[in-house]
Each structure stands twice: as structure tokens, then as C-alpha cells.
Amino acid sequence: MKRSKLTLFVFIDALGWEVLNRHPFFLEGVLVDRHKVETILGYSSACDPSIISGLTPAEHGLWSSFYYAPGRCTYAWLRHFRFLPGSLMDRGRVRGWMSRAIRRVHGFTGYFQLYAVPFQWLPLFDYAEKNSIWLPGGLPRGKTIFDLLSELGRPYSVHRSHTPDEQRLAELTARVRARAIEFGYVSLGKLDAYMHAHGPLDPGVGGVLAGYDARIRALLAEAQQGYEEVALYILTDHGMHTVRETCDVQSVVEALGYRFGVDYVAFYDATMVRFWVLNEGVRAPLVSALAGIDKGRLLTEAELEGMGVMFPDHQYGDLVFLMDSGVQVLPSFMGARYTKGLHGFHPSDPDSAAMLAGNRPIPDPPARVEGIYHVMLRELGLDGLYGAGGRPLSSGGRGR
Ligand SMILES: [Zn+2]
To answer: Which domain holds residue 91?
Structure first.
């Protein structure tokens, strides 16, 4: 006996609109409708929770990974590692191992990575995504589609964190074969990792996509065996930019001679720098020094508001300096190495664009990634009953 309907959302990290259009063979004949969707300024730590909740970062509370919160940091013991030789402690493998240890010791279920944040400054920052957004109750504010499905007792499947793509696809396929679910969401990371390392224009990108193409066609065939109707969506949260040059923002800031942690605090992401002004006298000289950097600019509060990332309490920073497309902040707290591909630039840049494609027409395609949540609700027959963040709507009301 076939089950009536299965809805699948296959998230391919960094398969942006431009990347998809350069590879028209990808799921040709399966995807009948495709749309460019605007991303949200920031990284997956901002976009993923928005896609699965319909809320902006300002609404659900997750934007960048680290934020200034002195005295709140649970892993402050790490500061003792600042006395160990940098040559050892700055190696990616050592930091990856430590990140896993910290997750275990503190019971973090979320995506915790130390990256290259200096150990002496780590105690100044807390980590936003301590809880996995993929598990029920994962958001600081609002509910995800998974919270909603759990509450409604509707069977679903979502990938487990810290597992490779192959395992994620195999586990989803097994659930589909068993006809055990009516909704499946899987996030795949190999393409993103490949393009960070080789750039989005590398010829090997096509090979990674060809691998996904075969696996997804097999998954779809399996689904059509067991279900009368299969809705398949391919989605992503951002594209990928070729890195053209680097910019040492840190030296410009440090040349001002102010004290980190006393006068100001900065967090150097790969494509933007966030500042917290602790001593008001620092603000004007800092703003003027940043204005002298011609490879990026300070975003206004109105811009941040329009992008859904303006936090009234300035949790994630008082000032946000964003690099121009293709300019990497180097050095940064994300790493000391030049990276060929990056995302996290201005959402209006063509290479930033995300996308949503389906094996069926998408009426009312979402303008920005958080709107993808409403496509999920519609496929589940829950539109009109629930709005963004799982908010119940009064009878007869419609979701955004
Ligand atoms: Zn990435």
C-alpha cells in the first residue's frame, strides 16, 4: 500500500542562483520551476534558522555565531590555552578536536566551532547556537517547522548534525523506503566545502553536482515507489563569491591604539567586522578610520533593519563593517588563510542570491529565504493554520 504524500526539502549548501544556472544539467527534467531568492546578511547561522521558522534573525534571535557577553561565556576556561605555543594551538585540526571536546563537556548540541578566535579574547564572547536548531526547542524565540510537526505528531525526518552527506542521504532514503515519514529535510555540505576550497568557478563543481544529481534522482525514484504524491524541493541559503583580494581591517583598527576589551571589542568574521563600542570616545575615530578603507563600508541601522538583522539591544554589535563582494577580511577570527570562495557579502550582490526549485510549480515564490518556510507549510496543508514561528492563526486567517 502506498502512502498518500511525501514532501522532501533537500538543502544544498551554497547552491546559489548563479551556481545553479551555470550547471543546467542538474536535475534537468525533474525541476520544473526555479526561483532566485534573496539571502539574509550573515552566514548559515542566520539563514538556516530563518528557513525553518519563517522568522528573520532579529525575530528568532540567531545571527552570527559569537557575540560580546563578558562573564557569560561557559567555556572561559579556554583562556588558559593562551600560554600554549601558537604553532600548536592555531592548527585547524587541534581546534576542530577542541571544538568537539567543548561540545561534549558543555553539552552543546548546536554547531560549535572555535575557528581561529584568539584564546585570550574567547571569554569575552558567548556562542549563539549552543542548542541544535534541528532538534525541538532549538530557537531562542519562536518555533521551527520541526517543533510544529513534533507537536502535531506528524512523522518527519531531519539530518543529524555532524554527519557526512552520504550518511544523511542514506538515512533519509531508509526512512522513505520504510514509508515512515511524510516530511523529510536534509542539509548537504560538500558543495559548500568544495567551493570554499576551490572557488565557485572551478570545473570540479560540476562533478560534485553530478554526484548529488544521481543520489537525488535515486531518492526520488524510491519515494515514488512508496507514495502516491512526492513534492521535491531543492533549496539553499546563499551562493558563493570568488575571493579577489584580502583586506587587513585589524591593522587599521589596532593602529588607533585603543584597548581591546576595554575601549572596544571587535569580532573579525571572514567578510565583515562587528564592533562593540565600550568607551564612547572611541566611536568617532573608529568610524573615521573605517571610512578610510575603500574595500568595504559601515552599514546603516536602516539597512540592517531592512535586512532583518537589526537587534535593538545591539547583541551582535554596535557597528557592522561589511566588505565589498570578493574581499576577504584577513587575518580574521575565522582563520589565517586566504580562501578561494566565500559567502556572507551584501545580499544584493548577484553571487549572494539563494534559490528554490521544485518538481512542481511554485505559486507565490518567496522573496527572501525565510519565505521558504511558507512553502513547507503549504505542502503540509498547514498554511492558514500557522504563521511564521509556528504561531497559530485564528480560523480563516492566512499566513504571510
Ligand atoms: Zn560556507
So the answer is: 66-127
Together in a domain, 76 and 36: no
User: 62 near 42, Cβ under 8 Å?
Assistant: no
Q: How many domains does the chain have?
A: 3
Instruction: Tell me which residue of 228, 219, 233 sits closest to 34, measured CA to CA.
Output: 233
Summarised one tens digit per residue, pLDDT across range 258-310 is: 999 999 999 999 999 999 999 999 999 999 999 999 999 999 999 999 999 99
Q: Domain check: are 25 and 49 in the same one?
A: yes
Task: State in Å: Cα 386 to ligand 1 middle.
Answer: 31
Lowest mean per-residue pLDDT among 86-95, 161-170, 265-274, 293-302: 86-95
Residues in a beta bridge with 334: none
pTM recorded for the entire structure: 0.91
User: Separation of 256 CA from ligand 1 center, angstroms?
Assistant: 32
Q: 132 in helix, strand or coil?
A: coil
Query: How far is the centre of ligand 1, averaged over its atoms, from the C-alpha of 343 (Å)?
Result: 6
CA of 239 to the centre of ligand 1 (A): 9
Grid cell for residue 229? 504524491
